[in-house]
Structure formats: C-alpha cells, structure tokens
C-alpha cells in the first residue's frame, strides 16, 4: 500500500478516484507527516455499495456470534502486538503525548474485548409468555445493516473503536470516515481488521473531508445508520441530511462540563492537593481537546482564592513539547485553526471581564517546542460568569474558566446552566451531599471525587445538545441492532372473523 492509497473498498486499498491528495501535518512543527487520499462522492458511493453487497449477500451478518466474537478478540491481540507503533502514530498525528497514545491503544483493546464478550454471552432471544402453550413468542436482535461512521480528530482511534467494535459484534457492515486532520490510526486499524480475517466489503474506509464524504454518507439511501462524533454544528447537519431517509442516527456532540468543588473536599492537605491535581487533569489533558474536559471549575467561594492560586501555580509548570519527547506533559493543539480559536476565546473572555491567572498566550519557542508548532499555554481565567462566550461554548483548548458559589443549590444551578450535558464531577468529603448533587446534575456521566475515567461496560453519551444515543455498555451494542418480535402459532386454526 502506497502512502496515498488510504481508501479501502471491498477489501482493496486504493487512491481517490479523482487522484486528489491531502497532506497530514504534524501539529508539533506544522511539517508534513503523511500524504493521504482525498476521497469524494464517487469513492463514498463505491464504499457504500461494497458495504451493501457485503451485508445483503455476504457471510458476515449470518456468521455465528461466537465466530464474530473470536474475530474481535483477534483484533484485540493485534492491537497489543502493534501497541508501540499505533501509539506513536496517534501521538504524531494528534499531538498528544506518547503515553496518552499507549493508554488509547489499551482502551481500544478493552473495547474490542468487551463487545466480544457481551455479544458472545447473550442468549438467542427473550422468550415472551403469550399466555397460551400454543404460541412460541420470542424477541430477537438483528444487525441494522450498513453503518456510516464519522469520527473526530481528538481521539481518532478510540472513537473509531467505540463504533466499529459493537457494529461488528452485531453483524453489521460499515463505511468509516475519520477526520481529515488525524486519519492515520484509523487506516492502521482497518488493516488490522483485514489481517484478523474480516471478509472483504465488511469494513470500508474513505479518507476525506466532511463535505463531501461525511455529507454523502449521511444522506445516502443505502446507509441504514449514521453514527457521528464531533461538534454541534456538524452534528446538526448530519441529522438534517439523514432525516429524509429516516435512518437511525447516533450523535455525540461534545460538552461544556462542570467540575464542582465544595470546600469540605479541601479541608485536609491531602484533599486539597488531590482536588487541585484533578482539576488540572480535568482541564488540560490532551491540551483540553477532550469532549468531556472539565473546562468549567465551579468552586465554593470560601476556598476560591487559595484553590485558584495553587491551580495557576501548577498550571504554569506544565511542560509543553512534542508528545514523543521524554518529560513532556502536554502537546500542541491539533491545527492552526484550533490555535486561532483558542486565542479568540481567551481574547473575548478578557474583553468581557475575566481575570487572567496564568497562560493566555503561545509559549516562547525552545528546543522541544518548534516555532511553527500549534502550542498554547495552559490558561486559567478567574471571575468568569455565565454570559461569557468562553463559559457557554465548547472551546476545545487548554482553557479553564472559574466560577464560584456559596450554596449547594447555587452550585447545582451553575453546573446545569448549559445547553450541553455530557459529563461533570462533584468533589465533597460529605458522601451524602456528593451523591445528592450527582443525582441532580443533568449530565450523562457524573464523577464523584474523580475526573475522566470511563468503563467500556458503562454507557457514554449526553443530555441536551450533547447528542442522542449512547456508546459503550449494552446500550452501545443496541445502537447497532434492530429488535424483532417473532410470534409463532404452534396450532394454527381458522379465526372465523368474517362469516363468508
């Protein structure tokens, strides 16, 4: 496979039909990292046609669940075999640290193993008591069909696995379009699927932009489901394009996530240290380019100044650099566009009255951070309020805003005062209060005295404009299945409804 043959259709790697190519840039120095095919409508239609044939005529949908599960486990083994290679690809392509890349590979491995076990462990169907021995009634699950998957640039491998693993476990075929900014790990994953023995046509890949590739997948009449992870504006367009064909739609559209800290969580030296450390982790891991980033610190007023001062002091010590370099704690933003957005959000916040506690600019170039890289200092903005753009909108950068409260009700009101609802956290030494507040938060995932961990067996998704549907867990498998009721009359006889 040559560098530009990154489109995979019906088991064959190929260049774009138009011959178009795209350079993939290393965000640490803005130099060319790879050249990939720039697919278009013709490539997309060919990929959908291959997936349609593979579903309607191929063996995969009828393959016994145990065999499908075995293939997913082989993929997991191959992921671990290539762990270092894939981690390096992910680090270079997205800018994240090499250790973050390794964690991603392990999480992807766990996702494939989880859905293999989940599918293999299910019964053949749910028997329904029809109230008579003359009827056998059962509810079964069948694959949806051809699935279109559109994934984001921040966690390309992870987000691909959250869609591919359950789709394959359920017996579907698919076409995946990774972000044009970070497509390289998805290309590698599709190669591993073929190596594991997946039949040709089941897994298809088109590298290219949202318009035309993503748009065509969303509207295509031969696509039965479209699963999209990305921004709110793009997700709305996907839903609109899918509506005329009434296909299933699953959307994960990010969040503006609160991290609520009560004073009693900071009552001891250990508690204070942990809460500050976790606030840094919540906001600045992967330079804040995380849909569940704890970008809104909502802290009790009585400990605000002490907490924010220590937070800013530690944030200033975060070591920036190329993600593959030893000792680097935070890499660059993914692109020049993301850097520009970050600068614009900080500028607007300062104009609206925020107090800059640290960061707020690009760092000076050094031997690790090249002058042309997309780096931005971890930034803490104090004295923020709900009317600010930086508080309302998903910034997807290393920006932490600080709001304060005096009562529990005020904390909950602030935390829920967002059109999103993906994730949030509450910190308190009072277990009853922590659980009480967690129950009131309108977010799909709520952490108590922690931030960021997730489990493949627990559903992931949000309330409000954070999207519809769920990934991971049993519901994540159900997204890729249709439910069918089979009613069998064991002793058929005339009904005699009509006299004639």
Descriptive overview:
The protein is α/β, with parallel strands linked by helices and 500 residues long. The chain folds into two domains: 5-252 and 465-484, Aldehyde Dehydrogenase, Chain A, domain 1, CATH 3.40.605.10; 256-446, Aldehyde Dehydrogenase, Chain A, domain 2 (3-Layer(aba) Sandwich), CATH 3.40.309.10. It is built from 15 helices and 20 strands. The chain has helices at 41-56, 65-81, 83-94, 98-120, 156-170, 184-195, 210-219, 232-242, 269-284, 304-315, 336-351, 389-392, 408-416, 431-440, 473-478; strands at residues 7-9, 12-14, 21-26, 31-37, 126-128, 135-143, 146-150, 173-177, 203-205, 225-229, 248-252, 258-261, 296-300, 355-358, 379-382, 399-405, 423-427, 445-448, 467-468, 481-489. The chain has a seven-stranded mixed beta sheet with strand order 14-15-16-13-12-17-18, sandwiched between helices. It has a six-stranded mixed beta sheet with strand order 9-8-7-10-11-19, sandwiched between helices. The chain has a three-stranded antiparallel beta sheet with strand order 5-6-20, with no helix packed on it. The longest helix is centred in the N-terminal third of the chain and has 23 residues, at 98-120. The mean pLDDT is 97.
Structural features:
six-stranded mixed beta sheet, seven-stranded mixed beta sheet, 500 residues, 38% helix, Aldehyde Dehydrogenase, Chain A, domain 1, 2 domains, Aldehyde Dehydrogenase, Chain A, domain 2, 20 strands, alpha/beta
């Amino acid at each position: 496979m040559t560098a530009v043959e990154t489109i995979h259709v019906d088991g064959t790697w190929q260049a774009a039909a138009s011959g178009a190519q795209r350079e993939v840039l290393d965000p640490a120095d803005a130099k060319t990292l790879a050249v990939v095919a720039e697919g278009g409508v013709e490539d997309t239609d060919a990929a959908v046609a291959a997936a349609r044939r593979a579903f309607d005529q191929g063996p995969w949908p009828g393959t016994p669940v145990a065999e499908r599960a075995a293939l997913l486990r082989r993929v997991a083994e191959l992921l671990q075999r290539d762990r270092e290679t894939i981690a390096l690809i992910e680090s270079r392509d997205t800018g994240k640290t090499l250790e973050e890349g390794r964690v991603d590979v392990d999480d992807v491995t766990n996702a494939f193993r989880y859905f293999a076990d989940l599918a293999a462990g299910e019964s053949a169907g749910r028997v329904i008591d029809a109230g008579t021995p003359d009827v056998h009634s059962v509810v079964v699950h069948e694959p949806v069909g051809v699935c279109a998957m559109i994934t984001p640039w921040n966690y390309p491998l992870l987000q691909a696995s959250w869609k591919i693993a359950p789709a394959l476990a359920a017996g579907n075929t698919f076409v995946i379009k990774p972000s044009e900014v970070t497509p390289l790990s998805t290309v590698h994953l599709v190669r591993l699927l073929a190596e594991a023995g997946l039949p040709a046509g089941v897994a298809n890949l088109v590298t290219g932009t949202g318009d035309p590739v993503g748009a065509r997948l969303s509207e295509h009449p031969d696509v039965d489901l479209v699963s999209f992870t990305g921004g709110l504006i793009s997700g709305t367009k996907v839903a609109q394009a899918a509506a005329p064909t009434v296909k299933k739609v699953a959307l994960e559209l990010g969040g503006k996530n609160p991290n609520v800290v009560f004073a009693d969580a900071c009552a001891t030296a250990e508690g204070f240290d942990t809460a500050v450390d976790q606030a840094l982790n919540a906001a600045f891991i992967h330079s804040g380019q995380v849909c569940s980033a704890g970008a809104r610190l909502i802290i009790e007023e009585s400990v605000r100044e002490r907490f924010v001062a220590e937070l800013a002091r530690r944030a200033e010590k975060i070591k920036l650099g190329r993600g593959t370099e030893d000792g680097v704690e935070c890499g660059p933003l993914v692109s020049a566009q993301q850097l520009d957005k970050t600068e614009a959000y900080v500028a607007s916040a300062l104009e609206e009255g925020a107090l800059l506690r640290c960061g707020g600019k690009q760092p000076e170039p050094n031997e690790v951070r090249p002058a042309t890289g997309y780096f931005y200092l971890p930034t803490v903005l104090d004295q923020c309020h709900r009317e600010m753009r930086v508080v309302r909108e998903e910034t997807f950068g290393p920006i932490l805003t600080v709001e304060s409260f005096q009562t529990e009700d005020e904390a909950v009101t602030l935390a829920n005062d967002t059109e999103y609802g993906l994730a949030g956290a509450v910190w308190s030494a009072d277990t009853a209060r922590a659980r009480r507040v967690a129950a009131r938060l309108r977010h799909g995932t709520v952490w108590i005295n922690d931030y960021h961990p997730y489990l493949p067996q627990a559903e992931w998704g949000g309330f409000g404009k954070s999207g519809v549907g769920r990934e991971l867990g049993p519901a994540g498998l159900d997204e890729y299945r249709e439910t069918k009721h089979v009613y069998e009359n064991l002793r058929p006889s005339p009904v005699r409804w009509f006299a004639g």
